[in-house]
Amino acid sequence: MEKGILYIVATPIGNLEDITLRALRILKEVDLIAAEDTRNTLKLLNHFEISKTMISYHRHNEEFRSEHLVKELEEGKNIAIVSDAGTPGINDPGEEIIKKCIENDIRIVPIPGACAMINALVASGISTKEFLYYGFLPLNKKLRKEKLEEIKNTNKTVILYEAPHKLKTTLKDLEKIIENRKVVLARELTKIHEEFIRGNIKNLLEKADDLKGEMVLVIEGNEDIKEENKLNELTLEEHYKFYEIQGLEKKEIIKKIAKDREVNRNEIYKHFLNK
Ligand code: SAM
User: Would you say the CB of residue 115 lies under 6 angstroms from ligand 1?
Assistant: First the structure.
């Protein structure tokens, strides 16, 4: 018997017009919809006049439900997985069933659509070239500290999700590490009160008490780190010159190059031996 297909269906993050034609067709055609919250998805299905059997698939039953869903897929049923909003698997259930399907050689088809972090990023005006998506910062003190340290030291754009009641605490934690880096808060994306607050962490902290709704923070990468990384893209000769024109001695230059490139000093020394 031919196995079924697992469709990962993105749904709107506010504005129902953001459902795609393909998503609607798939939701109509599948045998079963696995939903994070069936009551929530029922509203969406009712709006689009789709009547379909649903099964709950959420954080607390992900593992056990995945096994059941894989069985159904192996029996030839096509299943769509949806979360409460946006793209399943992005801070929403999905990962577990997707892994299990891969293990069991079941075809997976993503049906693209809304995702809060991507829309916050592209509208932020902050570099989209390279970015780190963290989802929600951990609440555990040690893990949170580690993540904050990473954010402090990255030259890539950082994207965070946050709940309104925790916003102020998070902004205060960020204040200690991001100084004057640009920050954009994207709020209520695709909804009536959609808003982008662009500025720095101080500007945001002043407004934090009044900010409600769903929100994404986009933070500019650390420019200082960018400069250091650029050095490693130079040839060794260019790298050498960079320090030479600053008036450094050969020994000191070699030491610095080795440190920048995280290699043994002798390797650099050998390279410049006869130069
Ligand atoms: N799977 C979703 C996605 O694709 O973006 C994310 C789900 S996560 C549980 C919920 C968080 O996403 C919210 O707390 C908020 O940070 C962000 N989010 C979801 N919808 C949003 C919206 N319309 N505007 C801003 N942020 C949103």
Answer: yes
Run means of pLDDT, 10 residues per run, the chain, 275 residues:
96 98 98 97 98 94 92 98 97 95 98 98 97 97 96 95 97 93 98 97 94 97 78 86 84 90 90 78
Select from 81, 114, 147 the last residue of a domain. 114
Q: Is 117 touching ligand 1 by the criterion CB < 6 Å?
A: yes
Choosing from 114, 131, 148, the residue where a domain stops is: 114
Domain hosting residue 265, numbered range: 230-271
How far is ligand 1, taken at its centre, from the CA of residue 49, in Å?
Answer: 25
| Same structural domain, 78 and 175 | no
Sequence-ordered strand ranges (E) for the chain:
5-9, 32-35, 54-56, 79-82, 107-111, 131-136, 157-162, 183-187, 195-199, 215-219
123 lines ligand 1 (CB under 6 A): no
Total-model pTM: 0.85
Number of domains forming the structure of the chain: 3
